[in-house]
User: Which sequence fits this backbone?
């Protein structure tokens, strides 16, 4: 099964072996020197990569400004709950990663990332891949976790005066995603349930993790707990807890910021982390 796509100014809608998503690249005639693989948030039940398009385009642009010659980004369009439930979205996330692998020379050029439920899918994907020794060699270079929903139903997911998320609604969405057959105690459904530090060590990207979340958001306590686990594995873990901020603030600020500096504050920090951990390389290979 081949690739079908409609290209418009460096953007393609990709349909490849059951995978659907947006492919953004500076120069389609050459291979990328870095690829971001992104899964959007939305409680597993809403949202689309198209809603994030300004954020994603700005990300590619900032990578170009940071010195990468031909940065690219693939944003997965996964099926939404309640019509689709686990493990369908995880299987699509794994298939999307395989598409990204087909576009790079080695997996260290890949940065995986997501916000909220999208970050859950990325965490689950890494745990799943690390279970198979033959697939660990193709883990990504690094991971960007923006306000990850690490524990789908938790007493620690509590409403705050500042955040726009509601814990009761989130728990409803989490149960919808799990469906009637999956267990919320399964780490591949709810990654915080993985207490095996060796499993997390195996699942960690080559150059580690970065976490961006708001100090006032519903998911902050569970996010901090996962960070504590990962640090025990000796993985490289960078943490940016934005004071006074809400859920998915790097995304929200791009739309709500008062000026360019405020709008790109989160993305610039993300790109700086990537730049420090995925080095620049010579590029010029023509893509056939």
Assistant:
């Amino acid at each position: 099964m081949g690739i079908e796509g409609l290209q418009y100014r460096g953007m393609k809608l990709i349909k490849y072996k059951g995978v659907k998503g947006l492919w953004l690249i500076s120069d389609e005639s050459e291979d990328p020197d870095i690829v971001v693989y992104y899964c959007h948030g939305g409680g597993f039940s809403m949202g689309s990569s198209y809603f994030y398009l300004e954020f994603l385009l700005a990300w590619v642009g900032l990578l170009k400004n940071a010195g990468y010659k031909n940065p690219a980004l693939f944003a997965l369009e996964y099926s939404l709950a309640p019509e689709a439930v686990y493990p369908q979205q995880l299987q699509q996330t794994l298939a999307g990663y395989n598409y990204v692998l087909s576009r790079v020379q080695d997996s260290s050029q890949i940065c995986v990332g997501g916000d909220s439920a999208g970050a859950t899918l990325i965490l689950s994907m890494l745990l799943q891949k690390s279970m198979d020794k033959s697939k660990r060699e193709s883990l990504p270079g690094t991971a960007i976790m923006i306000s990850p929903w690490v524990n789908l139903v938790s007493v620690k997911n509590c409403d705050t005066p500042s955040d726009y998320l509601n814990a009761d609604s989130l728990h409803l969405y989490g149960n919808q995603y799990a469906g009637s057959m999956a267990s919320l105690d399964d780490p591949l459904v709810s990654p915080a349930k993985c207490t095996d530090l060796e499993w997390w060590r195996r699942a960690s990207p080559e150059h580690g993790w970065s976490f961006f979340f708001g100090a006032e958001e519903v998911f902050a306590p569970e996010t901090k707990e996962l960070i504590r686990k990962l640090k025990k594995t000796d993985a490289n873990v960078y943490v940016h807890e934005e004071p006074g901020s809400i859920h998915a603030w790097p995304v929200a600020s791009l739309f709500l910021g008062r000026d360019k500096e405020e709008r790109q504050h989160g993305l610039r920090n993300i790109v700086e982390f990537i730049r420090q951990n995925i080095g620049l390389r010579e590029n010029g290979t023509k893509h056939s």
User: Anything to note?
Assistant: Residues 108 and 146 are 20 Å apart (CA to CA). The two ends are 17 Å apart (CA to CA). The mean pLDDT is 93.
